[in-house]
Specification:
6-stranded mixed beta sheet; alpha+beta; single chain
């Protein structure tokens, strides 16, 4: 029996995915473990493996490549060698001759006799009126399975017409994905009216969202319109928008900002760069150092390493650190797991791999799941301080600004100043989970670790 290959569910929140590329072609032999195709779900690009041996079959009328379809949509089949695929048309058997009342035979059955009742050259006497048979023929209704409402259960004309109306309604029902139907209910979009505007097309969530937008109140002058470029919102941008909106609407965000003397951290990295000349491993970046020290701070302030699930606060016993990575396709947040039990060099090596995969578009969904805290660094863009948005369902996110040499007071009584490397930190936390004072103490601990790296390096 052919095995259906469907759009897989690659994450808890995944409702639909985009088929990016076929790795096997129709008719190719496939073995368990072979990559069949790649799917983009939310932000991740995932290779989908086969769990069976057989022949890979793609329906000839398939148009799903490059399109977003709901989870569970049939994409292809795996069949045994010599087995017909479900989409292959099997010629219907020639009907056996039907004897007439005079004993003669006819090459084809009368229209009044559905082929489903023809068995071994004989037929069963149908309990249907002659008029109902004629109407069934005119309307193309297969009456073999129609339930009769006449006396003794006989099929009459009204039964045939009722069956025809059901078939007609089914044929004209709008083609719409489950996600789009739910969006239409939430946005108040009339699916039937939308289907009438798109005859023969399948309604997607993008169609529903466009239909929900109010018409422009002011027309755009032709000269202005010619100077504009309009492009559809990419799927990734839609996902980012949805998550950012959900974060701002769900959480009670508060941002704390402090200035840190990062001079000792700068010296530490300079020392690592110097020793890195004789070491083939990646040189730890400031993000790697911050991940390690923030991980240590979170063990002392576990309230910030938590999330809300239903009516419970779930505190993680491990620190899985997410890093915001900017790419041409959008923002990705890959995760380095169990930061505390990894050395700085291990964190650096894993970070290099994840950043490269993010920019190449080859991140797996597992690479971005399970984060408990996130660091986002805009220092390379000459940003001093900003308000980061919490990465749900996490409790907090740390924004890191640029490191700038400044003249600061190092001894008030002696009126002594010095040039120090200064940096701003911005902590946004969910006030539903944590109050201001515990969050401030955590940020204070991070500041202390940056200013005195030996406090966490010896742990």
């Amino acid at each position: 029996m052919a095995i259906e290959i469907v759009m897989p569910k690659l994450g808890w929140t995944m409702e639909e995915g985009t088929l990016v590329e076929w790795m096997k072609q129709d008719g190719e032999t496939v073995h368990a473990g072979d990559i069949m195709f790649t799917v983009e779900s939310d932000k991740a690009l995932q290779e989908v493996e086969s769990f069976e041996d057989g022949i890979f079959r793609i329906p000839p009328d398939s148009d799903v490549l490059g399109k977003t379809v709901p989870v569970g949509t049939v994409l292809a089949y795996i069949t045994k060698v010599g087995e017909a695929s479900p989409f292959e048309q099997i010629p219907p058997p020639q009907p056996s001759p039907i004897a007439t009342e005079e004993g003669a035979s006819q090459g084809t059955p009368n229209y009044s006799m559905p082929p489903s009742l023809v068995q071994n050259g004989a037929h069963e006497l149908p309990n249907i009126s002659p008029r109902a048979r004629r109407v069934a023929h005119e309307l193309g209704v297969e009456w073999a399975n129609v339930k009769g409402s006449g006396r003794t259960g006989r099929i009459v004309e009204r039964d045939i017409r009722a069956a025809a109306s059901v078939v007609s309604a089914s044929a004209t029902a709008p083609q719409i994905s489950p996600v789009a139907r739910r969006a239409a209910e939430e946005l108040g979009v009339d699916v039937s009216a939308l289907a009438a505007q798109m005859p023969g097309q399948r309604i997607t969530r993008e169609h529903v969202e466009r239909a929900a937008q109010p018409p422009a109140a002011v027309s755009i002058p032709a000269a202005t319109a010619q100077n504009e470029t309009r492009t559809p919102i990419p799927r990734l941008r839609q996902v980012i928008a949805e998550r950012m909106s959900a974060s701002s609407q769900t959480t009670a965000p508060v941002t704390l900002t402090t200035e840190v003397d990062a001079t000792e951290l700068v010296k530490l990295r300079q020392g690592l760069k110097a020793t890195g000349q004789s070491d083939t491993r990646p040189v730890p970046s400031y993000n790697d150092l911050l991940a390690k020290l923030v991980g240590e701070a979170l063990t002392q302030h576990p309230q910030l390493n938590a999330r809300i699930e239903g009516d419970s606060i779930v505190t993680s016993n491990t620190v899985n650190m997410g890093f915001a990575v900017d790419t041409e396709r959008g923002l990705f947040v890959p995760v380095v797991r169990d930061i505390r039990n990894k050395s700085i060099r291990q964190i650096a090596a894993e970070g290099v791999r994840l950043v490269a995969n993010a920019r190449e578009g080859s991140l797996k969904s597992d690479d971005m799941n399970g984060g408990t805290f996130t660091i986002t660094n805009l220092g390379m863009y000459e940003i001093d301080a900003f308000t980061p948005i919490i990465n749900l369902p996490q409790c907090a996110i740390l924004g890191v600004g640029r490191i700038v040499p400044k003249q600061v007071v190092v001894d008030v009584e002696a009126e002594k100043v010095a040039i120090r490397h200064m940096m701003f930190l911005s902590l946004t936390f969910d006030h539903r989970l944590v109050d201001g004072a515990p969050a401030a103490r955590f940020l204070q601990q991070v500041k202390r670790f940056i200013e005195q790296p030996y406090l966490w390096l010896i742990n």
